[in-house]
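Q: What would this chain look like folded?
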Amino acid sequence: MPARTIVFLFLLLCSCTHVTMQRGEGPKVEPSQEHRIHSFLFALIRQPASALPTQTTLCPGSRIETVEFHMTPTDVLIATATLGLYVPQHMSVACAPVSN
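A: My prediction, written as structure tokens:
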């Protein structure tokens, strides 16, 4: 396999990603907190969910409205430099007041 093909496939696997999950029940709220998520082997092995902050920790007295997972350009550089062994990602959380 030519070296260009290997480099292209590697960069494709370490590319930027962005996933947004929103309840859609209220007005759009800007993310208020950001946390780093650690993953390994091209993000196949991830940090356990029990290690992530809970809703009561993230949004005391309110609820989670939006969660975004994304890779910054720095995260892509780190993933590329480690050849995909360590792939950091960021999680942004937006809180909204509890509606009755």
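The CA atoms of residues 10 and 49 lie 27 Å apart.
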